[in-house]
Amino acid sequence: MSSIQMVVPIVFWGGKVPSHEITRICKSGDSGTIATGCKTGELCLWTFNKENDNLELQPQHLLLGSGDSEILSLCFVKNWTGDRNRVASLTTKGTVHLWDAKDGTCVKYITLPGNHTHIKAMDRSRHSETLLVCWGQYPDVFILDSSSLQTLFVLRSSHTPNWLQQLCFVPNVEHRDAVVAATMEGDAKLWLVPSNKVVVYQDLHPEVLYEDRSVTLNLISALTMTSFSSGRHSSVLVVIEEAWQLYDATGGQMKLLAIHPCEKIISCWGGGDFLSMDTVAVWSKEGTVVIYKLSTRCIPGHYHGNSVEGSGSTSGAKIMCVLQPRPLNTITGPSCCCCVFNDIHYGPLVVQGDHTGRLYMWKLLELLQQKEHSSTPIPAHVSQSLADSWSYPAMPCALTDPLGKPPYPDITCGLYLPLFGRLVCGRSDGTITSVSAAQAATLLLLQHRKFTKGWPQHCIMTGHNGRVNHLLFPYAHRPVFDAQFILSGGEDFTVRMWDIYTGSLVHTFSAHSGAVTDIVVCPEDMSPRFQTCVCSVADDHSVAILSISEKKCLLLAASHASPIVSIHWRPAEDFLLVNCADGRLYVWQVEACALDRCIEGSWAQAVLGNTPDVSKKQVTDDSPLRIHSMRVGGDTLTQVMLFDPQSVMRQLSRLHDLEEQLRAQEQSKANAFRSYLSAKRQYNVVAGPRQAQQPMLKMQRQPVQQASGSIQENEKTREKLSKGIASHRRDEDDDLSADRTKQLISIVRLLLSCLHAWNLDTDLDKTCTTQLGLVKPARPVSYGLLSRGSCLSLVLPGWGLHKVAMGSTDQCDEKKSIQLNAIQMAHQLRWQLSQSLTTQHLLTVVSTTNTLMNQSFGARLLAEEGGTHHLTSTSFSSDDSDEEDQVKVVLDNAVRAAWSQVAALHCVMLPEKLGSSFRPPHLPVLAGRYLDKCLEIREAAQALLQSELRRVGVGGRKGLVTYWSSKLPPLTQPRRSRGDILARTDDDEVDASKRGAVATPQQQYTALIILGLIGAEFSKAGASRRHSVTEVETMDDSIARQTARALQNVLLETKPSLHTNLRRSAIDLIGRGFHLWEKYLNVPLVIVGLLDLAIQHPLVMKSPSIEPVGGDSAKLTSILARKALITMMMAQPSIMISTLAKEVSTHLAHSHTTHHPHSSFPLQIGAQLPPATAGIVTPPNKLLADARADMFFLIDAAIDKCMQKVTLQLVEVVDILLFCIDTDQLKKEKYLLDAYPVFNKLPILSYCAKTRCMAVGAQSGRVAIYDLKHFRCHILNAHSYPITALNFSDDGKMLGTYAYGDSKISIWLLVSGLFGGMSSSPKCVQSWLAISGSSPSQTSNSSSALYFTTSLEWLSSKTILLRLPGAVECKYSL
Fold first, then answer.
1. Rounded average pLDDT over 1236-1263
2. Beta-carbon contacts of residue 971 (< 8 Å; ≥ 6 apart)
3. How many other C-beta atoms lie within 10 A of the C-beta of residue 521?
4. Nearest to residue 1257, comparing CAs of 1238, 1278, 1226, 1236?
5. Which helix (H) or strand (E) holds 1298?
6. 3-state SS string over 1075-1126?
7. Are 432 and 425 in contact (CB under 8 A)?
8. CA–CA separation, 859 vs 768, rounded Å?
9. pLDDT number for residue 844
10. β-strands 8-12, 213-216: how paired?
11. What is the pLDDT of residue 737?
12. By Cβ atoms counted within 10 A, which residue in 191, 1012, 1170, 1374 is the most buried?
């Protein structure tokens, strides 16, 4: 449920600085971050450096995800539920993104219909919530929830509706918050927003609100509209190009207080904002900022008289200072944007951004305190731009830098081929480069080693006369194409086909008379001739269909009058649709190669709306590495390597399985060869005539042939494994060639070398470089995060490295030391960037190292310098293979121990090594991966989460419990119930007003995980032995009850999908903490619900921990339910056994069947049957019958692990076991104990195969006799103390019982009547006092060992033998 995807991005920025033309800017609520937006759709997060008195500003993250849409509006969103603040952005396509203000990840996004222009945050401190207000070229205003982006209110106008220019918020208007807006006609409208709107995260129907009042004012062409409130009074500042106006908005009134025209040095205003109630900052479009001190009559609550009228009135405001970043004559480009805010350390600040991507900042505290004010322009105190991040020692580079010398040609397009692991790039000089991506990245980022000689493998393809605009690998879209060809389109009007293996030019298509801008694959539903065709688009307004197989142009569509926007396909009608910029849609017949028609207007839009996009389908490839080439800031191409740790682990597992399979084949053939040698020696030493040896010779001929063949096959096997099973066979994805194996090892080395925490443990660093094959980075690495909507948050180069270059007088002499310091500081700063980045890197390192620990083959390959597999040949002619295997085992154990140290460093010791600068893992991210489908990720997340909870100590866990308890999922009454279901009390739910803001679903999920894990692992009730006494605590009873009920409700809820992470988490946590939750849960409901989930996917109960194949959600849920049941049985066997026995008894009573003997069935006549416990999806009358195998396995596990407690409930245990056995088996199986060995494990049990009866002793002194032939059960009140031993006579007619507590042996006559049937009331025919000298009180608490050392044995039909501990035997005769 985390918004961060499990992908590790590493950015290669290149030497060219991307442009960042700032058009929007906003401030953070805590003034720790500034966000800027630009025309090309990127956002940049800038952070403050407050370690010294000098205020510094640094760009930290660049956010990509808006495409090429311009950022129209930005605002900061305060999160009242406790999470970090967020940034809301609005693009020209109507997409609203919510970005995390710390790490830049996309939390949520939504596309709203309509032409939107503005978005603002509405902070409602009284109600602890923030709303987003969106408006644009329509008369309505949409108010969205800031967490879910759902529309809560729609503000409409009942009187003269019109588009809105600007709006602001005024609190305390009739005890509600008001929205004041200025329309295009200059009117002011006011809406009152309700205060207690409870957000439910489901489908909502927004509430429509109409304006409360409307006033005609002179607010035409308002540029900005802001408000400021102090106490009961509120002011509104409206800025237009000619003047700025001040209004008194107290109580919702709009009284004009002042009008101030433009200053002489200002051509026109651009915007303004309040610094305080009596100070405003107004700026021009050229970037000049003027700070005004308002007169007393312009402050609400201090003026007297009527409002000001007329446009020529002045405000009486005085200029305090004028801020100007640079001289006016040097300002070129678009208008500047500004924001003002108050910082807790530096006071009022003004920040301004311009089209060059530079930010300017002024500190106003000293300026405002001066007694004499001046209109002399004051330059900026702080100035920073993106270009400063590209300065030394950041050293940003591109992946193609190792292929030449500077100056490098600009990269114009890029394409990554996962099948070959190669990056193909088109450049501005017309060349195309093909290079091994992993090798190039290793050379650039890591220190050079001897295995990098001859790297990177590359080729340069020349042929284009000009810039290369587009690259296409057709095989990636459809396997019908040949995988050895790629296509390129360039400025020379040609489309060229290249051989990726040799780099040679295969064919040139010259169909266009303009530069080729795009190439796409024709859809697969076309006619067979066109299935191997591609479609190219050129800037001469032409489209061509090119046949790859025939190497010629099949269709040239060149009758378009305007540039082509997009192309679409309708294969069923054999149509090619060309959408042009003038709104016309050209329809071409593909087979006929002719224009069919040309349509425009609404008809064209309707056709496009009903035409699916079928040309961009790609073949999915489980590749551990992908490279995206993205345009950042216009023409700059940035390459991002995306490592997929889950794919890496799958590939390593596949490689390990392949090695084990081939090694097993080799071992079997080696054994055959040894058998041949042994037979040959035996043949040579056999005495006697040769004729006598002929039969043996014939017998050995076949093994000789097999052995000789095995030698040849073994050589082929080694060659096959070293060179690869196949050379890029496209039809067998499971086979890994030698090249792909090397590629995989290079990727693993690069990933772990970049993510490992270097310079924290010198000995471990040496171990990593000498034994594990890791390499230290040679330059700072830029990381990133991939979040929802494929949005990227990329760390800019040089962040935090500005201190390294400070103070160096002679840069030439100290260049090497500065670079080394920069690398070391980059390692430290990586753990200070954000909690989300720390979490992602720790998850990746821990999960990958755990995989390498369990798979020695991949670790062995990684440890080798060359990364190539050299399989140790097995010696068939000697006996040294065992010694070689032992040496190999020792080496593997050493490598495994080294990887264990790496995992321990990142999982446990990293916070201690880094100290206070360490950003700990983000708990919501770990909670989101708590039950990930990938086993390695899941185990790593659980280990990291427990380690972090252990690190914070008792006080930290108490704080977490207090914080997250208010965010648990709301308690709802389950639909299923039985007679004894517990009713909810007043303390089960927390009042909404006490809980504060409504928690989001993500927060509810996180709260459930954290509280459930703290209760399960760190409470005194279930603290494991690994915790010390000071590390555990008692969870508050009310919070424990609330957590347990929340877990139960999530488990039993039927509305959402049956197999969700939330339900699986509840299953796991109920099992882990059953010792704590048991007294708060409805145990029958929970057990039956878990059984219902367990039977949803059939599974062999002997292996309940088998991992699901292919990420099967149903199978994973079933496995976790079985694990939870087993854990609960181990924790509380008495409760589990008694509950299952009652459910079985109730089920038999409701089914009115007598096919199963049961100690409590039939019930007493006239007794009311309790209702059967219902499951989640299975009907009650069917659930227990389907769950027999699961219950049988549970009881078997309890007998193996908890025999001492099982002996206290033997009758209930046997009731459950007999119910789990099929009725036909009970009828037909005479030797029941042989068919079901579980009964042999029970101590006080006897079975007579002749009469088909089973006797079980109870702790109450009773004996339950099960007649399996007639499905009846008899209860004997045999003794007053627990039964110690019992046994049937050989003929089954008598039963002997013994109780150690009363030292008494009783003989019971069971069979009576002419036909030998079992009597309905067995009689005691003889009793003896067996031993004396032991009081009952001394034996009542005897251990279960007594049951296994005491026995009764019938020596004859008249004699019985009692064996006691200490080899004591006593005979008794009837």
1. 89
2. 984, 988, 989, 1042, 1045, 1046, 1049
3. 25
4. 1278
5. strand 1294-1299
6. HHHCCCCCHHHHHHHHHHHHCCCCCCCCCCCCCCCCCCHHHHHHHHHHHHHH
7. yes
8. 12
9. 95
10. unpaired
11. 65
12. 1012
Judged on CB neighbours under 10 Å (0-12, 13-18, 19+), 241 is: middle
Beta bridge partners, 1372, equal: 1360
Token pair for residue 1275?
A: 């209860």
SS3 annotation, 98-151: EEECCCCCEEEEEECCCCEEEEEEEEEHHHCEEEEEEEECCCCEEEEECCCCCE
Cβ neighbours for 901, distance < 8 A, ≥ 6 positions apart: 764, 767
Distance CA 1355, CA 403 (A): 94
Residue bearing tokens 């349509």: 599
The pLDDT of 964-985, averaged and rounded, is: 54
pLDDT band, residue 753 (cuts 50/70/90): very high
The position carrying tokens 């530096």 is 346
Q: Which residue has the tokens 């760009």?
A: 59
Query: Torsions phi, psi of 740, nearest 5?
Result: -70, -30
Partners of 417 in beta bridges = 422
pLDDT at residue 291, as a whole number: 92
- Average pLDDT across the chain, whole number: 81
- With the C-alpha atoms ordered 190, 191, 196, 200, is the resulting torsion angle positive or negative? negative
| pLDDT band at residue 1059 using 50, 70 and 90 as cut-offs | confident
d(CA 1005, CA 1065): 9
Say what the pLDDT of residue 730 is. 39
Q: How far apart are CA 1329 and CA 359, in angstroms?
A: 100
* pLDDT, mean of residues 224-230: 91
Does an H or E element contain 91, and which?
A: strand 86-91
C-alpha distances in angstroms, 1342 versus 140, 413, 1202, 1244?
A: 81, 81, 16, 15
Q: CA 146 to CA 201: how far, in whole Å?
A: 12
Beta strands in 429-467 (DSSP E): 432-436, 458-461
For residue 887, the SS3 value is: helix
Residue 169's nearest CA partner among 85, 290, 75 is 75
The rounded distance, in Å, linking the Cα atoms of 323 and 377 is 5
Secondary structure of residue 655 in the 3-state scheme = helix
The answer to whether 851 touches 649, Cβ cutoff 8 Å, is yes
Is the pLDDT higher at 1063 or at 617? Answer: 1063
Q: What is the DSSP letter of 905?
A: I
What is the pLDDT, as a whole number, of residue 81?
63
Give residues with Cβ within 8 angstroms of 988, minimum separation 6. Answer: 971, 1041, 1042, 1045
Close Cβ partners of 897 (under 8 Å, ≥ 6 residues apart): none
More confident residue, 622 or 818: 622
pLDDT tens by residue, 757-773: 998 899 999 999 988 98
Encoded tokens for 710: 């095995």
pLDDT at position 993 is 36
DSSP 1335: -
